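User: I'm curious whether this sequence folds into something compact or stays loose and floppy. Could you predict its structure so I can see for myself?
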Amino acid sequence: MKTQKVWFITGASRGFGLEISKAVLASGDKLVATVRKNPEALTTEFNNSPNLLVVALDVTSEEQSHEAAAKAVEHFGRIDVLVNNAGYGLLSAVEEATAEEVKRNYETNVFGLLNVTRAILPYMRKERSGHVINVSSVGGLAAYFGWGVYGSTKFAVEGLTEAMALELAPLGIHATVVAPGFFRTNFLDETSLTRTSNEIADYHETVGNMRNLATELNYKQPGDPEKLAQAFIKLATSENPPVHLPLGSDTLHRFREKTAAFEKEIEQWYDVVVGTDHDDLKQA
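Assistant: Here's the prediction. I'll summarize afterward.
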């Protein structure tokens, strides 16, 4: 029989978090779903499933993160899969974003992820098993104009997950970073996307066009959220999960485009790249 896993998913009230939550419960697994407010609404939406525990959690609070992890273990006995999904977008030129806007984006997308991870890893280490799945973005693999700050938070998530994969492997715990492309969720709505009020005219043809594109693309994105959720189910049941999992043909295209350009630059600057080594290394 299928082993029933216990999932802990942040940001479960909408978007990817909601779709993955639906798939988890449909698979027969148990779920701890966290929301910032009104946990009763999600409980009702899932018909008070006995396999569901909804917990109020603002990931920017380290105290709440530890409380939520403790409630999860008290209720279901363990946590097998952590999905760090909570986050939001910031559409802005790097120069346009205020210090406070940048700080808030990092507090949720990076520091919030770290709060929850630090709260849950002790339970996984105790069991010598588990899987941490961090949600990044195509913007965490390659930059786009208008998404510099947001993308930088996801670049951080990529790097953190790579290190965690190395650190946790000897303890029997997996770590994977999932980089979705543009999926047909509410990510481009005001509920999930912040647009800076400061707009600099010099960026009109780059960031300005991206603002228009984001409006036009809303609910026309190529990715299917339900198929993404099934990819998460498959990922969590894998005995040898990848460290990186890009999702969507647009993500794959963008990543390959970047690596090809990177390789071309290395070729053009090869002598400079290797010319900075000490002479004694060349003699050896």
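Summary: The chain has a mean pLDDT of 91. The domain at 6-249 is CATH 3.40.50.720 (Rossmann fold).
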